[in-house]
UniProtKB/TrEMBL annotation:
Keywords assigned: Flavoprotein, FMN, NADP, Oxidoreductase
InterPro entries in the cross-refs: Aldolase_TIM, OxRdtase_FMN_N, YqjM-like
SUPFAM superfamilies linked to this entry: FMN-linked oxidoreductases
Domain NADH:flavin oxidoreductase/NADH oxidase N-terminal positions: 8-366
Cofactor list: FMN
Protein's name according to its UniProt entry: 12-oxophytodienoate reductase
A GO MF term: NADP binding
Matching Pfam families: Oxidored_FMN
Organism, as annotated: Nocardia donostiensis
Signal peptide annotation: none
Length: 380
């Protein structure tokens, strides 16, 4: 057997997490957990990727215990006896297959109501009551018109309740045996909505300049680090783009990005999950460094790149039936890993098409094309 792409198969240790390779299964919403309870099919789904050699599995987004965390009853949650029993099986099965797994804790914030119809009397959590200025988005005009209505800004009590819910979810995940904690802080969801100036126009301690806008995500990370101790790594997903507007940015310059990420790193983030439509897109003019590359350069902590690995189209551009074009950009991933630009590569859709993707890469076998009609709606 010949090993291909050697840089992908270097080990990496982050706190207590020992990874045999640099390949990560990216978080992908599956909506396959009725009443928020992951069943045996979910356990088999994750176990297959662990058995296929994936170094680390990051679960789909998991709802924290808050009334407006997630608006889809088939998204798994990190509370309730049934859900926790389901997650215990998932964790045990992944570990039995030799894998490692961490949950992505999720609160949708301003995007409450985007996945399903919700009671209009229930107020979404928004820092300043704003959904965000509509830009390049894939949401329907009907949803945008409804969501764009101003709501009451979050109160200090709201903020404290959500912070506590994040901490409870992280502690629960640690007790279940997960190998770390991941926080979704991108794409316009709650943590990101504090960072984005368009959704955070507050003038108190939670808003204003970049330091103040970063304070709530920072406090969430600090509280989780204090609660789970020093062993478990904390991953933090961030992005420039928002689902409200794919052209939006939280930082116009590297210096601005350093303010945000530096404070998060100081709070206890170990790995920045830099979400971009393509892993190799330059993040700022004048440099070919990716968003993950800039995150590592600015903070010195580990980073993970993600976006269209092995594929010709980004997720937003591939909402069509049929197989997506396979593009061999794995060597570009490897080149950037070897140069130290980033430390991990997260792969989403190819993991849906091929549970043994890591072994496929190791042996140099042809990549299995991702077919939306076949692979997106099942738990193979």
């Amino acid at each position: 057997m010949t090993d291909h792409h050697a840089a992908l198969f270097q080990s990496l240790t982050v706190r207590s997490l020992n990874l045999p390779n640099r390949i990560v299964m990216s978080a992908m919403t599956r909506s396959a957990s009725p009443a928020g309870v992951p069943g045996s099919d979910v356990a088999r789904y994750y176990r297959r990727r662990a058995a296929g050699g994936t170094g680390l599995i990051i679960t789909e987004g998991v709802a924290i215990e808050h009334p407006t965390a997630v608006d889809n009853s088939r998204v798994p949650r990190m509370y309730g006896d049934g859900a926790l029993a389901g997650w215990r099986t998932v964790v045990d099965d992944v570990h039995a297959a030799g894998g490692r797994i961490i949950p992505q804790l999720w609160h949708v914030g301003p995007l409450w109501g985007a996945m399903s119809e919700v009671d209009p009397a229930i107020m979404p959590m928004r820092p300043s009551g704003r959904w965000g200025t509509v830009g390049a988005t894939s949401y329907s005009d009907e949803y945008v018109a409804r969501a764009a209505q101003l709501t009451r800004p979050m109160t200090d009590s709201d903020i404290a309740d959500v912070l506590s819910a994040y901490v409870r979810a992280a502690v629960t995940a640690a007790e279940l045996g997960f190998d770390g904690i991941a926080l979704h802080g991108g794409h316009g969801y709650l943590l990101d909505s504090f960072l984005w100036h368009d959704t955070n126009t507050r003038d108190d301690q939670w808003g204003g300049d970049l330091v103040a806008r970063s304070r709530f995500p920072v406090e969430v990370v600090k509280a989780i680090r204090s609660a789970v101790g020093g062993d478990l790594p904390i991953f933090f997903r961030f992005s420039q783009h928002k689902q409200q507007d794919y052209t939006a940015r939280i930082a116009e310059t590297p210096n601005e990005l350093q303010v945000i990420l530096g404070s998060l790193a100081d709070a206890g983030v170990d790995v920045f999950d830099a979400s971009s439509r393509r892993f190799d897109l330059p993040a700022f003019e004048g440099s070919d460094l990716s968003l993950a590359g800039w995150a590592k350069k600015l903070t010195g902590v580990h980073t993970m790149a993600v976006g269209s690995v092995g594929l010709g189209k980004s997720l937003r551009d591939s909402h069509v039936e049929g197989a997506a074009e396979v593009v061999d950009n794995i060597y570009e991933v490897e080149r950037r890993l070897e140069s130290g630009e980033f430390d991990l590569i997260a792969i989403g859709r190819l993991h849906l098409a091929d549970p043994a993707l890591t072994e496929t890469l190791r042996t140099g076998a042809p990549l299995t094309p991702f077919n939306r009609a076949v692979h997106e709606g099942n738990l193979y």
